[in-house]
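Dear colleagues,

I hope this message finds you well. In preparation for our joint manuscript, I am sending the YihY/virulence factor BrkB family protein (Candidatus Phosphoribacter hodrii) sequence together with its predicted structure, so that both groups work from identical material. I would be grateful if you could confirm receipt.
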Amino acid sequence: MTAAEASRAEPEAGRAEAGRAELSAIRRLWARAQRTEAWRAWQRYGVAQGGLLAAGIGYFSFFSLFPAVALAAVVFGFILQGRPDLLAAIGDALNAALPGFVKTDANPSGLVALTAPETATLSWTGAVAIVTLVAGGLGWIGSLGEGLRAMFGVRKHPGNIVVAKVRDLVVLGLLGVALLVSATLTSAVGAAGAWSAQHLGLGEHPWLVGIAGVLVSLLVDMAIMVVLLRVLTGLKLPWPVVRAGALIGGGAMTLLKLVGAQLVTRATSNPVFGSLVVVVGLLFWLNLMAKVVLLSAAWAAGDLDDSGMPSTRAAAAASTQAAGRDMAGPDDADGALDGASGGIDAGDPRARAVNGIPNLGVRSKDRVTLAAGAVLGASAAIAGGAVRRLARPRQR
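The corresponding structure tokens are as follows:
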């Protein structure tokens, strides 16, 4: 090798060595990331088909949302007839959780208004309507509970159907109480901020009131996550596990609510949506919130695996195993709680039947395909009509 060739080979060898070092560093970082709790939660979320569950929860929530909010309007409108300020605060709190959904002074284009119920609402006909609204709200709570239990590997509903419905009803009531507490504390923080600005000279520091409001929202969201993980799932989870999931989920929900309006507006800015922008925005938002809740549950499930306490896993599985024995016999109760690395063979009809997963026949698959095609066809027709209207020249 000549001196010129040697001089050219040295820089190339140096670059190759630097490239190998960079690749090795990237691999180490990637391996370290895969050992984090966040990555394990994401892996568990994927193994449990969290994306599909979140889509189903969001879709179910959309149809249960109208009766649930209508029920809240009747209850809060009746209780707070003499407190329009608190009723307005509840409307703002609902708009923070569901951007643009409730009609308020700041959002006159909302879909539902919080007003005092009419006299007819309190009659027997109104009572029947309220029962219907409660049933609709319970549908959303039930689907959310199924998704949360799936993150822990629980494939069967713990307890009998009556206990499950009572639990869902309690959770629905607790969510309403949390909404009322959030609105009350937010109003109290606003009043305290106005008083301090007038008497303590803190008018130049409005950010203090903003921070206090965020802390109140964080505490309420964490309490909601505690209710979802500890009560709605029906599993006997230890407090450290619930606390970790509540902290992650509550913080994520608070952060999303701070940027919710801008996020939904950006996601639905396509002019093709037209008058469907509110519907599309709600579907997007509900799906996003469902993903946050399920990921938080997956994080808590990872902490449950790391606890190193066999009795902890047994306590979480006890109610599910008992429910399996009550509803399907002792043989069907085995494997009610799978580990993070466990699973079933989805192609095995017997495994699907044992784990409570429906085995669709050929005709059932055809009906599902036909229904999916009809939905896609209708969506394409709506989108095509919107595009044609946009492309049509305006008449002067």
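For the figure legend, we might mention the following. The chain is about 75% helix and 0% strand. Residues 362-396 form one domain.

With kind regards,
E.M.
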